[in-house]
Write a structure and sequence with these properties.
The chain has 157 residues and is mainly beta. It has three helices and twelve strands, in the order αβββββαβαββββββ. It has one domain: Electron Transport, Fmn-binding Protein, Chain A (Pnp Oxidase, Chain A), CATH 2.30.110.10. The strands form three sheets. A seven-stranded antiparallel beta sheet has the order 3-2-6-9-10-5-4. The chain has a three-stranded antiparallel beta sheet with strand order 1-11-12, with no helix packed on it. Strands 7-8 form a two-stranded antiparallel ribbon. The chain is globular, with a radius of gyration of 15 Å.
């Protein structure tokens, strides 16, 4: 048996298909956001969501400092948008269609679902922060999800 290394671990963990979301906030300097594939419902009572963000990411500190977040679960025709929001050093909102949620968080137009809420806590584990947010707005829309599987975006077939 070979020793486990990062590349091997990444390959194996990539066998778990996930949805793709964009986490956003309305900062004093304009909207900020990033692509996130580690997102999910944490609790029904109270209504909580959780997501992970790279601790050293450029956009995450801007989003975290606001304290209110929006989450847009991307549809299968939003792969290019997911790639843009995963890129550092670019204006991620240039050309992106979005609308403010009820509390002002940017919500990506055409997404399958939108959530808005306030951050309750953030803990650091390895190279990522795990965030928990209390949800005060949620809306679902028709469509098919964008998926991330084995290191790349994919779609239901």
């Amino acid at each position: 048996m070979n020793p486990l290394d990062v590349a091997s671990y990444k390959s194996v963990v990539g066998h778990f298909a996930t949805g793709v979301a964009v986490v956003t906030a309305a900062t004093d300097d304009g909207p900020a956001g990033f692509t996130c594939q580690t997102f999910g419902s944490l609790s029904l009572e109270p209504m909580l969501i959780t997501f992970s963000a790279h601790s050293a990411g450029h956009s995450w500190p801007r989003v975290r400092d606001v304290g209110r977040i929006g989450v847009s679960v991307l549809a299968d025709d939003q792969e290019e948008l997911a790639r843009v929001f995963a890129t550092s050093g670019v204006d991620k909102f240039a050309g992106a269609r979005w609308s403010p949620g009820p509390a002002g968080s940017p919500m990506i137009d055409g997404a399958l679902a939108h959530f808005e809420g306030r951050l309750l806590g953030v803990t650091t584990h390895g190279d990522h922060d795990q965030a928990v947010a209390a949800v005060d707005y949620a809306a679902g829309h028709p469509g098919r999800p964008l998926l991330y599987y084995r290191g790349d975006f994919t779609h239901f077939s």
